UniProtKB/TrEMBL annotation:
One of its GO terms (biological process) is oligopeptide export from mitochondrion. It is found in: Cell inner membrane. This is Multidrug ABC transporter ATP-binding protein. Pfam families: ABC_membrane (PF00664), ABC_tran (PF00005). It comes from Streptomyces tateyamensis. Residues 596-615 have a biased composition (Basic and acidic residues). One of its GO terms (molecular function) is ATP hydrolysis activity. It comes from the Bacteria. InterPro entries: AAA+_ATPase (IPR003593), ABC1_TM_dom (IPR011527), ABC1_TM_sf (IPR036640), ABC_transporter-like_ATP-bd (IPR003439), ABC_transporter-like_CS (IPR017871), P-loop_NTPase (IPR027417), Type_1_exporter (IPR039421).
Length: 631
């Protein structure tokens, strides 16, 4: 990482601290690609609102004209008009629901893929600092929680607002005095809904964080590794108790979220439900000489409009609450989208038509924490000619794996540069870099899929014959062929249906299939027994022929044949040369060899074997002869 690297984990907030306000235009921008469809929805909503307010006027004509005057023809036309309005309104509603739901789901799809794509571009540092369950929760729970808001809220907002405006205009046209009475409490209702929205927004943020904690607990404790660890450590009951506690906290938050402002919103509904009685009462009080100020038809039509106003008005207030609540979800998603991409492809990436495989480390400095006083690597100068091999050795924590991470650009250097065929890897196109470098790491990862699907992850268009050839090269074909389902066998979660050595050989076969010019082998044979290790090492040797190979290994058998060996200590190269050169130097490398086998075992071996003439560096040859095992 570069010195300006930030902590990938979203910053912690104190209890009760508000999230920064979300820019509404940023949310609206999500709908921009679908503005044509949304315009169609708007027209349908407007037409539906107009058709809806026509019915009360037809009703007034029925009560004040058609029935009193006995005009059956007019009555029939008015009734047919009311029925036709209901049919047309229903058609409009179905169409607008179809279009708005389609738009909402497309926006959800865009948001999910944008977040996933952004996370795919994050550096390895982000994932080492963030719990997997937290990432999964943001994609599944947070985006899923926005579904109703994105899918229906926008249309509901426009529809209800249009209906309210059209209904109020119609009410004023019938009688402005009764309209004033009906709308007197509207400002109070708006104030109540805003208070409820802020309260639910706060609780929703807490609920989503608790969901993330619960998702992380499930992902970690119910994985194969988690189950093995929990049972072998006797912690299954404590894990169950902890999950129960976290689930109980989530249940309490769900109840709080459901009940937040419930009584206040119910008061609004009660008042609105009572408004027709208030209108009848107001009309009765304003009567002159026993006659009401409006006709019975007008009064019934007005109450009908008021009832029609009740549903969209309450829905509009509830929508406002939902919008405020969903802000917490949008803010959590935008937190991830706003994380800077440290490992970014350059604006004009370099693509190499043919990769020879020369790798250079030019005064490379690197540190995981930019604030730390010392880095993990400092002043690394190494050249690996095309087709040659480099072995990296050293104590645990000396920086071997960190150095190998810089070649495929899993991390970026903080100083100096790493080049491939003379081109800084930071200037290369991602497809060139990934196609040129193959990595077999100490920790093998397999998908919960078939053997063939796991192998084809390296080369999707590989033929069955190519799969078999790669498996043979990795000394795993015979085992796969002996399985009932052969290459269609499911490997299980993280490959747990296979042994460690078998998983390692599958990973090697996957790399063989990719056929990269540069190989990085990070303890690639660490999980294999001696016999299997020799077979796989032979396959690796054949694969490595003519390729650039960087090997991190503790076994002498995989180190001594390297063209050059670099000994790392505290992030620096302290020795560099061939196996024989470093033995003759009798320095750090020779000391590592001598410590690779206990002195008692060396003594027993010396006692069993006849004495040999030793070089001046006492014990070096015996250590060399003894170590086909670990270094």
């Amino acid at each position: 990482m570069r010195p300006d690297t930030i902590d990938w984990t979203p910053p912690a907030r104190e209890a009760g601290q508000e999230l920064p306000p979300v820019q509404v235009r940023r949310i609206l921008a999500l709908f921009k690609p679908y503005r044509g469809r949304l315009a169609t929805v708007g027209l349908l909503v407007a037409a539906s609102a107009v058709v809806s307010v026509v019915t009360p006027f037809l009703l007034r004509a029925v009560l004040d004209t058609a029935i009193p005057q006995g005009r059956t023809g007019l009555l029939t036309l008015l009734v047919l008009g009311m029925i036709g309005a209901a049919v047309v309104n229903s058609v409009f509603n179905v169409l607008q629901t179809l279009i708005s739901t389609t738009v909402g789901q497309r926006v959800m799809h865009d948001l999910r893929t944008t977040v996933y794509g952004h996370l795919q571009r994050m550096s390895l540092a982000f994932f080492t600092r963030t719990r997997t369950g937290e990432v999964q929760s943001r994609i599944a729970n947070d985006i899923g929680g926005m579904q109703s808001t994105v899918t229906s809220t926008a249309t509901s907002l426009v529809s209800n607002l249009t209906s309210v405006v059209a209904t109020v205009v119609a009410m004023v046209a019938l009688d402005w005095r009764l309209t004033v009475v009906s709308l007197l409490l509207l400002p109070l209702f708006v104030w109540i809904s805003r208070r409820v929205g802020r309260e639910r927004k706060k609780i929703t943020g807490e609920r989503q964080k608790q969901l993330a904690v619960l998702s992380s607990a499930v992902q970690e404790s119910l994985s194969v590794s988690g189950i093995l660890l929990g049972r072998t450590m006797g912690r299954s009951d404590s894990l169950s108790h902890e999950f129960t506690r976290q689930s109980d906290s989530l249940a309490e938050l769900e109840v709080r979220a459901s009940m937040a402002g419930r009584w206040r919103m119910n008061v609004i509904q009660i008042v609105m439900a009572a408004m027709p009685a208030v209108i009848y009462w107001a009309a009765g009080l304003t009567a002159h000489g026993g006659a009401p100020i409006v006709s019975i038809g007008t009064l019934v039509a007005f109450v009908s409009l008021q009832q029609a106003l009740f549903r969209p008005a309450v829905s509009l207030l509830s929508t406002g609450v939902e919008v405020q609540t969903s802000m917490a979800l949008f803010q959590r998603i935008f937190e991830y989208l706003d994380l800077p991409v440290e490992i970014a492809e350059p604006a004009e990436p370099v693509r190499l038509p043919a990769v020879r495989g020369e790798v250079r480390f030019e005064r490379v400095d690197f540190g995981y924490d930019a604030q730390a006083p010392t880095g993990t690597l400092a002043g690394i100068e190494l050249t690996v000619p095309a087709g040659s091999s480099l072995a990296l050795v050293g104590e645990t924590g000396s920086g071997k794996t960190s150095l190998s991470y810089l070649v495929p650009r899993l991390y970026d250097v903080t100083g100096g540069r790493v080049t491939l065929d003379g081109v800084d890897v930071r200037d290369l196109a991602f497809d060139t870099l990934s196609g040129a470098i193959g990595v077999v790491s100490q920790e093998t990862y397999l998908f919960h899929a078939s053997v063939a699907e796991n192998l084809r992850f390296a080369k999707p268009d590989a033929t069955d014959e190519e799969l078999v050839a790669a498996a043979r090269a990795a000394q795993i074909h015979e085992h796969i062929a002996s399985l009932p389902d052969g290459y269609d066998t499911l490997v299980g979660e993280r490959g747990y249906r296979f042994s460690g050595g078998e998983k390692q050989r599958l990973a090697i076969a996957r790399t063989v299939l990719r056929n990269p010019p540069v190989l990085i082998l990070d303890e690639a044979t660490s999980a294999l027994d001696n016999q299997t290790e020799r077979a796989v090492q032979q396959a690796i040797d054949e694969l490595a022929a003519g390729r650039t190979t960087i090997t991190i290994a503790h076994r002498l058998s995989t180190i001594r044949r390297a063209d050059q060996i670099a000994v790392l200590d505290h992030g620096r190269v302290v020795e560099l040369g061939t196996h024989e050169d470093l033995l003759a130097l009798d320095g750090r490398y020779a000391a590592l060899l001598r410590r690779a086998e206990p002195p008692a075992e060396q003594g027993r071996r010396d006692h069993r074997e006849p004495a040999r003439e030793q070089p001046r560096a006492t014990g070096l040859v015996s250590a060399q002869a003894a170590l086909g095992t670990s270094l």
